[in-house]
């Protein structure tokens, strides 16, 4: 069935090799992030708006938990990491604000489908893996 195929193509799995950082707190947050991300109904434009709202709330929790770890253990590049978190939260809020019009909803959908997955991969491979590595040494 066409709808099912579409959903399967869209699905972004948790890839152990790429995404697992061997920090229990962070790994759980990242699993949760993808669970929310994948629960979107790609056939319904309103669903992107709903899921981005949930993803924004979850990301606030996700980022503040990482930032608590940075502060607790004196992580040296916390400023850059926190700036990146704040940039993403502002971006999500921007697209939610934009989604009051149909044009804005289409922009939000494009952001959700194209930008978020590549951001997630890059952030985990760079900043989050560096933080997890640092925590392994000090915890
Ligand atoms: Fe993270
Ligand atoms: Fe992070």
TrEMBL record:
<keyword id="KW-0561">Oxygen transport</keyword>
<dbReference type="InterPro" id="IPR050669">
    <property type="entry name" value="Hemerythrin"/>
</dbReference>
<dbReference type="InterPro" id="IPR035938">
    <property type="entry name" value="Hemerythrin-like_sf"/>
</dbReference>
<dbReference type="GO" id="GO:0046872">
    <property type="term" value="F:metal ion binding"/>
</dbReference>
<dbReference type="InterPro" id="IPR012827">
    <property type="entry name" value="Hemerythrin_metal-bd"/>
</dbReference>
<comment type="similarity">
    <text>Belongs to the hemerythrin family.</text>
</comment>
<dbReference type="InterPro" id="IPR016131">
    <property type="entry name" value="Haemerythrin_Fe_BS"/>
</dbReference>
<keyword id="KW-0813">Transport</keyword>
<dbReference type="GO" id="GO:0005344">
    <property type="term" value="F:oxygen carrier activity"/>
</dbReference>
<protein>
    <submittedName>
        <fullName>Hemerythrin</fullName>
    </submittedName>
</protein>
<keyword id="KW-0408">Iron</keyword>
<keyword id="KW-0479">Metal-binding</keyword>
């Amino acid at each position: 069935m066409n709808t099912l195929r579409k959903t399967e193509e869209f699905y972004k799995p948790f890839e152990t090799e790429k995404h697992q950082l061997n920090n229990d707190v962070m790994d759980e947050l990242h699993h949760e992030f993808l669970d929310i991300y994948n629960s979107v109904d790609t056939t319904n434009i309103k669903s992107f708006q709903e899921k981005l709202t949930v993803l924004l709330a979850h990301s606030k929790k996700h980022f503040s938990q990482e930032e608590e770890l940075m502060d607790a253990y004196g992580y040296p590049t916390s400023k850059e990491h926190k700036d990146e978190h704040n940039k993403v939260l502002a971006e999500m809020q921007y697209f939610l604000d934009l989604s009051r019009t149909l044009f804005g909803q289409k922009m939000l959908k494009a952001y959700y489908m194209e930008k978020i997955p590549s951001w997630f991969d890059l952030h985990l491979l760079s900043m989050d893996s560096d933080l997890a590595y640092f925590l392994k040494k000090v915890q």
